[in-house]
Prior knowledge:
Layout: H1 8-15, H2 21-35, H3 47-65, H4 96-103, E1 127-130, E2 138-141
Helix pairs in contact: 1-3, 2-3, 3-4
Amino acid sequence: MPDTWATVADVLTYAKATVDDAAVLRAQATIDAHAGRIFADAERIGARDQYWLKLAVAYQAAWQAGQPDEFERLDVTSTGGSQSTQGTETWLVLAPHAVQALRRVSWLGSGSFHVRPPNEAGDPQREVYGDDGADPGYWRRL
């Protein structure tokens, strides 16, 4: 079996489901398509992202076991006169917990970035030339 983010044992551990290698491989392909990364890139992906990908594959493999028509269904928005709802873009192909795990992968996250507060190291204090009362030519810290 090709290398995957998760194993059959991971699926049992995290999702409490028994699946075979083929099911894990199908889940891997689905997660790879949504994550935009393949296992061959593992050496360039950090440990934290690999952990979230492992959870995503494990949850996906367990969820897919209960979705016999997962590769055949369509995204239906209405059915005659009955009421229907349209879910998210991935609601028919991704397990709910797999979606949560993928949101934590660094390149698929919220898109926000951390702005350091002024008291964090990295930006030295600036000095200004001005009047401090005693010596008009004295440099002082801001």
